[in-house]
Amino acid sequence: MQTKNRNEMKESSFNIEYKEDLYISSLLHKDDPYKMNWVEGTQLWGTIRAPKGIDTEVTRSFTNNNTLREVYTFTNKTEFDIFSKLGDISIYTTFNDDYESADVCITNKCHAHIWCGGTVSYIMGLRMGGEGPHLGLFLTKGSLKSYSIERDLSLISNDRGDFLVHAAPLALAPGESYVIEWELFWHDGKEDFYKKLETYPNYLNIKAENYTVFEDEEINIEISLHNSLIDKQINITRNSQAISYTKEENIVKINEVDLVIGEYSYIVHIGEISTEVKIFVLPIISKLVRSRCDFIVNKQQYHNRDSHLDGAFLIYDNEDQHIYYSHYHDHNGGRERFGMGVLLARFLRNNKDEKIEKSLKKYVGYIRRELYDEDTGMVFNDIKRNNDIHRLYNYSWLAVLFKELYLTYKSEAFLKEMSKVLLSYYKQGGADFYPIELPMFEMLALLKEANFNVEKDEIFSHFEKHVNTIMSYGVSYPKSEVNFEQTIVAPAAGCLLEMYKLTEDSKYLDEAKKHIKILELFNGLQPDYHLYETAIRHWDGYWFGKHRLYGDTFPHYWSSLTGRVYQNVAEITKDTEYYKKAEASYRGVLNLFNEDGSASCAKLTPHTVNGIKAGFYDPWANDQDWGLYYMFNYID
Q1: Average pLDDT over residues 44-53
Q2: Which of 490, 494, 481, 430 is nearest to 459 (CA)?
């Protein structure tokens, strides 16, 4: 490997340090008061992996547009042709994306939104607190087809890992070279990032009306062309079949209807440019929910009178086609799996089905017997009222189940149970905790409607104390199961918005906006139904999946919790853009569900993680039903 040409380096806003004159060990904006290093990792930025026989050369230079251009040249130095597979040719792009404390993350860590879309590829780095400048990367020569991750497993869920971007498979004749070239540039956020991309001649701005589409909807895609491309030949295929399009000046439009359920990859060829957009077509939501409820009842409920698990909704292994349980916490008979009962109760609110109703009632009986103390409101972690781990998340989820049961059956007994659970939650220290899904406004409205005024007033006082505690932390979020994550920021924003709806006190809305700004940064806008308005999460496949693989999960169903926040914002402010963002967030997790009602707890996105092949939906249906519940609630 050869070094960069130092003679090409000139003054810029970049402060760069090198190691061995080959790799970048530090990259800062010279005016950044926080002195954030954007390229911190286990490996060094620019480290290359290539097959034996390929020589590599790296040159770096600053352009007149204040960008850093990096050129990686791969040359076949043998007397034989060399063919590469995906993953053979890789470059480390070690964006500093990992979780320390919230205070460190806000100023000195970034989210890396990666799109390996062929000749239109980029990485949008966003400082986790939202304050610019931010760092972006755009590919100007060559083609990237995927990325992999290498993680420091000693940091468990808090290290997203080092990123390796992969050149598209290629063939090099003896003496032939291939170039990957990109530019690094500073930007002020999402809008400015994409504006800067539009200045590059090989950028195609692709936008779909929806990336996840229901079978009764149209697919609408718009492609904006750089002026230099307007007169170029355009070819578009869908799943390898040529399709028609319309063109008006620099806008290309695709409109399709009546497509069958499944994934659709649209490949756009314009001159030397080739990129794609991915759309997913699903059954209408009522069909999808019904098939999922049927699947839960038929395949995920355990029946054995001799077992404490009798009546439980458990994991289903789609590979082994068998139900599964382990006392290990994320695989047990409680916790996040309350979501299956919540979905069934929500379905039965507007639908009659004796089999589903019988199943749900048996499940509620199981909960009362094994997971819940009706006298104290205590919620247990697993069967036999086991609390080896006393987990406060469990309380709000069971409270939501009782809320849904009340709305389905109109029995005030369920409101009493909901109240007991909430009061027990606060007795256990819940005011210092960031719960996932706590619909304060709706819960108190139901108590008021039923004239449960004593419970309403007591619970409101706890809610108020809770939200004031969240305000006292501000954006210095306390560490939870992960040091800093989307499901710490989303509950903070959500609880503040709920309290605003209860009080109309502007201080809560003003405070919520600080968290919403940070929450939005977790979500990318890549033209792919797995990624568009999907939050970065990168540990759930390990904790909840069969294959126990760490790595980016696009999507994971808790991404839809951001949609819940967006929906609240939209309802409060009447901002139509937040309605669109909320629905995109909800739709984005629905590819975890199949037409037959089977499901997956997480999609592992990278090509590999620590050398292990990824790019799959984990075969376990485990805890994903909260995502379908949110979408059903939003539409129904």
Answers
A1: 97
A2: 430
Task: Find out if CATH 2.60.40.10 is the number for domain 205-282.
Answer: yes
Look at domain 6-197 and name its CATH class.
Answer: mainly beta
Whether residue 181 contacts residue 143, with contact meaning beta carbons closer than 8 Å, is answered with no
Tell me, what's the pLDDT at 492? 98
**Spatial separation of the C-alpha atoms in residues 198 and 203, rounded to whole Å:** 6
Q: Which residue has the tokens 């205590």?
A: 378
pLDDT given for residue 410 in this prediction: 96
212-214 and 273-282 strand pairing? parallel
Determine the Cα–Cα distance for residues 21 and 17; give it in Å rounded to an integer.
9
Which pair of tokens denotes residue 156? 């468990």
Angle between helices 338-350 and 354-370 (to 10 degrees): 140
Q: What is d(CA 165, CA 145) in angstroms, rounded to the nearest whole number?
A: 8
What radius of gyration, in Å, describes the C-alpha atoms of the chain?
26
Beginning with the edge strand found earlier in the chain, give each strand of the sheet holding 54-62 in spatial order. 54-62, 68-76, 177-187, 134-141, 120-127, 110-117
Residue with tokens 């029946």: 303
60-84 pLDDT, tens digit per residue, is: 999 999 999 999 999 999 999 999 9
The residue ranges of every structural domain in the chain are: 6-197, 205-282, 524-636
Residue identified by tokens 């964006």 is 95
Contact predicate 459/422, CB 8 Å: yes
Q: Which pair of structure tokens corresponds to residue 152? A: 């420091």
Residue 34, CA distances (Å) to 28, 107, 111, 136, 479 in order:
9, 6, 16, 18, 22
| pLDDT tens per residue across span 273-327 | 999 999 999 999 999 999 999 999 999 999 999 999 999 999 999 999 999 999 9
Tokens of 432: 């210092």
Distance, in Å, from the CA atom of 162 to the CA atom of 40, rounded to the nearest integer, reads 9
Which residue is listed with tokens 């800062």?
A: 28
The pLDDT of residue 2: 43
Q: Residue 549 in 3-state DSSP?
A: coil
CA dist 546 and 540 (Å) reads: 11
Question: Which amino acid belongs to residue 408?
Answer: T
**pLDDT tens-digit series, residues 474-525:** 999 998 889 999 999 999 999 999 999 999 999 999 999 999 999 999 999 9
What pLDDT is recorded for position 308?
98
Beta strands in 371-457 (DSSP E): none
Burial string for 179-212 (b: 16+ CB within 10 Å, else e) reads ebebbbbbbebbeebbebbeebebbbbbebebbb
Sequence-ordered list of residues with C-beta below 8 angstroms from that of 307, at least 6 positions apart, any chain: none
Q: Which two tokens stand for residue 551?
A: 């790595």
**d(C-alpha 130, C-alpha 489), whole Å:** 13
pLDDT at 3: 39
Question: Residue 112: in which H helix or E strand, if any?
Answer: strand 110-117
Residue 117 dihedral angles phi and psi, to the nearest 5° = -110, 40
Contact of 281 with 270, CB cutoff 8 Å: no
Residues in contact with 454: Cβ distance below 8 Å, sequence separation at least 6, in sequence order: none
User: At 424, which amino acid appears?
Assistant: S
Average pLDDT of every residue of the chain:
96
